[in-house]
Amino acid sequence: MGKLDKKKFRKEAQREKDFLEEKDPFHDFEGSKSELFLLRLSHFAKKNRRSILIASFAVIVGLLAFISISEYGNYRNTRSTKAIEALEETFAKNSGLSTDKKIESYKKLSSDFNSQTSKLRISKALSDLYAKKQDYKNAAEHIEEASNFIKGLPEMEAYYLYIAATYREKTKEKEKAIELYSQAVAKIKTNREIPSFKAWALFHKARLQYNIGKKKEALEILKQVLQVDTKLPSPKLYQVKKIATYLLIKINKGP
After folding, report:
1. What is the rounded distance in angstroms from the CA atom of residue 88 to the CA atom of residue 57?
2. pTM of this prediction?
């Protein structure tokens, strides 16, 4: 082999070696797999030190931000809870305080706190106070608002919607009441523990459908009432089914 060929061969061999080193600097390592893994990990960290530091910093900042937000939320909830309890204690000590004054106090408190927990409690309290005044329109609006702040408790949300529907009935808003009864049923459609509640919500929906002249829809809903079942004896369920049967017969007989 001539000098030129040897020189060319050495260059090509060096290029190949450099290529292999760049692709895998440990391609000729003869140690154990665990040692090789540690070497490669160390090499990667050294080579990407800047990126790793930036990523680590971002993770730490994000974690601290999450903890701060969570702690601040807990702090706000604690403050609002204490404020509501203090207000209710004041009401208990001053039994002669008018309903209007109580409503005014709750509204002021509502403007000071906006956590979901405080909004839920205040909206429910306002609804009860308006109902006491027989201002059922405001009572319905506040109990509907309260239902929006309930998370993970479909039975409780259904109960609030049911109450709202009864208030809407009192204000002659039958279509709105039907809608709310439907929403209440939808919240508990897979719950087998409160079948009588579901049956009553369906019955009231059917009754209102009948009242506004929708007999066909009322009949279909009444049939759903009769299909609600439970494994345990339930006097309330028996009662609503009995009333539903009576209304079903009445509608089928016609005027």
Report:
1. 46
2. 0.69
